[in-house]
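Hi support team,

I've been running sequence recovery on a batch of backbones for a student project. Most finish fine, but this one hangs at about 90% for roughly twenty minutes before it completes. I'm not sure whether the input is malformed or the queue is just slow. I've pasted the structure tokens below so you can try to reproduce it. Let me know if you need the job ID as well.

Thanks,
M.K.
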């Protein structure tokens, strides 16, 4: 890290409205060599050039303090997708490159990178650009499904899937009955558990093609196309509701949970699984980096159980976590979980299993949260 450089974004997450966003950047530069500032925008994950690369803009600034206003316009991907202003004056980039074929994702990773003359990175800062557009979300999910994006990978994601099903199997058997709604179902975890359920399952998601395929594959489940925030059902229609890894995908999760409450019978059971915004790695980095590239908003243990659910009429009864990111490794700029990166190997499955179980006892710091709640009003 170059101590002669300081970049302070006004915010670490920029929310777009109709494909446009803006933010302010404070830049303090006191370098002994000539540096280039690159504003580089990729999809959040993956970051392959050029297919996942929106573009880069290079600027030169003299030593001193600079207050920069950034304007983003992704309604069309071209050289004007980023504008930088200082004191109302448009700053012209030294060079730039854009990819007009880039397909917008819900999350873009915007990096502020200072390079020296030897093309070495001497400073790096990141912010997230969030696009809560329904068509962008639908396009992302269609692409994800086409690539079998929800199939677990070995060994880490496979173990995450295993431990999640272990908890859910027990909860479904004990607490679910009657008519059960699976909102934002994907392939539906009910079908991943080899069990003949004693309740009737109604599962829904946005992608028509996937729901049609699943209806043919699993006719024992009723598959429906719907938006998890706007349910096509009468009030008090379901005895139980499962929301597996869907809250974090929604532009307005508060509205969504109230909508679930509307179709839920009094006294019914809700089970929610969702990533923990304040998992250990995020606490170490003092950032709120999402677990996946389509997570518009993640919740902490406290936010989920002491705010979101109670304010929507639910009382959390059982609260568990899965996996503690205990083995943090630095990549120079921020910390990463070793077992989800280079340590994601079969030889490390034993320690992974231990850390998954450790999350049961320390849910506030865990990677993923599982809450069982009851509708009280």
């Amino acid at each position: 890290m170059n101590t002669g450089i300081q970049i302070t974004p006004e915010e670490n997450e920029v929310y777009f409205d109709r494909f446009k966003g803006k933010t302010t950047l404070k830049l303090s530069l006191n370098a002994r060599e000539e540096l280039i500032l690159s504003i580089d925008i990729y999809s959040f994950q993956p970051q392959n050039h050029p297919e996942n690369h929106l573009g880069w803009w290079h600027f030169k600034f003299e030593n001193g303090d600079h207050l920069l206003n950034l304007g983003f316009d992704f309604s069309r991907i071209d050289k004007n997708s980023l504008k930088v202003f200082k004191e109302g004056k448009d700053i012209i980039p030294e060079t730039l490159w854009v990819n007009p074929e880039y397909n917008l994702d819900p999350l873009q990773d915007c990096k502020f990178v200072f390079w020296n003359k030897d093309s070495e990175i001497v400073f790096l800062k990141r912010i997230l650009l969030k696009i809560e557009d329904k068509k962008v979300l639908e396009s992302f999910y269609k692409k994800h499904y086409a690539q079998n994006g929800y199939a677990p990978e070995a060994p880490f994601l496979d173990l995450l899937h295993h431990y999640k099903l272990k908890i859910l199997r027990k909860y479904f058997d004990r607490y679910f009955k009657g008519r059960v709604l699976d909102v934002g179902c994907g392939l539906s975890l009910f079908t991943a558990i080899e069990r003949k359920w004693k309740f009737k399952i109604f599962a829904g998601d946005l992608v028509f093609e996937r729901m049609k395929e699943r209806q043919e594959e699993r006719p024992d489940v009723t598959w429906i196309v719907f938006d998890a925030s706007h349910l096509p059902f009468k009030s008090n229609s379901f005895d139980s509701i499962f929301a597996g890894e869907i809250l974090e995908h929604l532009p307005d999760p508060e509205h969504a949970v109230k909508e679930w409450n509307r179709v839920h019978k009094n006294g019914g059971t809700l089970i929610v699984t969702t990533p923990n915004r304040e998992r250990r790695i995020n606490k170490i980095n003092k950032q709120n980096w999402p677990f996946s590239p389509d997570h518009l908003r993640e919740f902490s243990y406290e936010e989920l159980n002491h705010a979101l659910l109670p304010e929507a009429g639910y009382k959390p009864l059982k609260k568990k976590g899965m996996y503690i990111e205990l083995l943090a490794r630095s990549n120079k700029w921020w910390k990463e979980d070793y077992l989800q990166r280079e340590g994601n190997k079969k030889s490390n499955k034993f320690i992974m299993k231990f850390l998954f179980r450790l999350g049961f006892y320390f849910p506030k710091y865990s990677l993923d949260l599982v809450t069982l709640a009851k509708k009280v009003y």
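--
Follow-up from support: It reproduced on our side and the slowdown came from queue contention, not your input. The CA atoms of residues 71 and 83 lie 5 Å apart. No action needed from you.
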